Amino acid sequence: MSSTRDTEKYSVPGLERGLRILSEFSRHTPTLTAPELAKRLDVPRTTVFRLLITLENLGFVERAKNGRDFQLGTAVLKLGFEYLASLSLTELSRPILERLRDELGFSANLVIRDGRDIVYIQKVASSSLFTSSVHIGTRLPAHATVLGRVLLCNHSFHELQDLYPEERLQPYGPHTPPTVKDLYQLLLTDKAHGYVLEEGFFESNISTIAAPVFNEEGNVAAALGLTIPQMHIPPADKDHLINKVRFAARELSSCLNHNIEAVAT
């Protein structure tokens, strides 16, 4: 009983009505007028009209060609596509990351970029005694991490300046590039290699190998990485580990309908 009262107490009627309006549109009723929505929801027309104007300003609904009917806007489509793309990426990546972990014995991760942060969206841990502090949902600074450099590698210098307008980048350790110019020089090398390998870049006792995952449009959709709990990787192992990470990234890229040959070159 108290749970129901709490739910009602913290409910936002305006938001609820706005979401109910969006739910009324379907393949069978792609367009609706304000009076039709008022009747369906049993609320005053003026209230429905105000909600529609608000949703229209935000892009969640738009007016049909006749100027009278309303239909779902591009913001709803964007939310749906982003959700589906994220869902498919995390689901598709898991068996690939698990196979990489099983073959090499190290934890494997998948991250995406959200502004100036990287966000872990998939992780498969190894059975070693090493315990990582990152988990799904963890955010780290893109400019100071190996996985972040992978996600930024296709940015132009002007795009980086827009993202980091400050004169000095925030340091997270001795290896953090101090300026956007320094970061850009790192990214040029990363892009030329097609992967990033760093020993102790963000954490002194961690080595990371990461490669880009491309989507159908050829954009970097994610970064796939291998976490090695060692300060240094034995030189004899480096090529083998790099090839395995790059192959896994190409495999996931192909699942996203990217041209594998384009990545390989």
From TrEMBL:
<dbReference type="GO" id="GO:0003677">
    <property type="term" value="F:DNA binding"/>
</dbReference>
<dbReference type="Pfam" id="PF09339">
    <property type="entry name" value="HTH_IclR"/>
</dbReference>
<dbReference type="Pfam" id="PF01614">
    <property type="entry name" value="IclR_C"/>
</dbReference>
<feature type="domain" description="IclR-ED">
    <location>
        <begin position="75"/>
        <end position="258"/>
    </location>
</feature>
<dbReference type="InterPro" id="IPR036388">
    <property type="entry name" value="WH-like_DNA-bd_sf"/>
</dbReference>
<dbReference type="InterPro" id="IPR005471">
    <property type="entry name" value="Tscrpt_reg_IclR_N"/>
</dbReference>
<keyword id="KW-0804">Transcription</keyword>
<protein>
    <submittedName>
        <fullName>IclR family transcriptional regulator</fullName>
    </submittedName>
</protein>
<dbReference type="GO" id="GO:0045892">
    <property type="term" value="P:negative regulation of DNA-templated transcription"/>
</dbReference>
<dbReference type="GO" id="GO:0003700">
    <property type="term" value="F:DNA-binding transcription factor activity"/>
</dbReference>
<dbReference type="InterPro" id="IPR036390">
    <property type="entry name" value="WH_DNA-bd_sf"/>
</dbReference>
<dbReference type="InterPro" id="IPR014757">
    <property type="entry name" value="Tscrpt_reg_IclR_C"/>
</dbReference>
<feature type="domain" description="HTH iclR-type">
    <location>
        <begin position="12"/>
        <end position="74"/>
    </location>
</feature>
<keyword id="KW-0238">DNA-binding</keyword>
<keyword id="KW-0805">Transcription regulation</keyword>
<dbReference type="InterPro" id="IPR029016">
    <property type="entry name" value="GAF-like_dom_sf"/>
</dbReference>
<dbReference type="InterPro" id="IPR050707">
    <property type="entry name" value="HTH_MetabolicPath_Reg"/>
</dbReference>
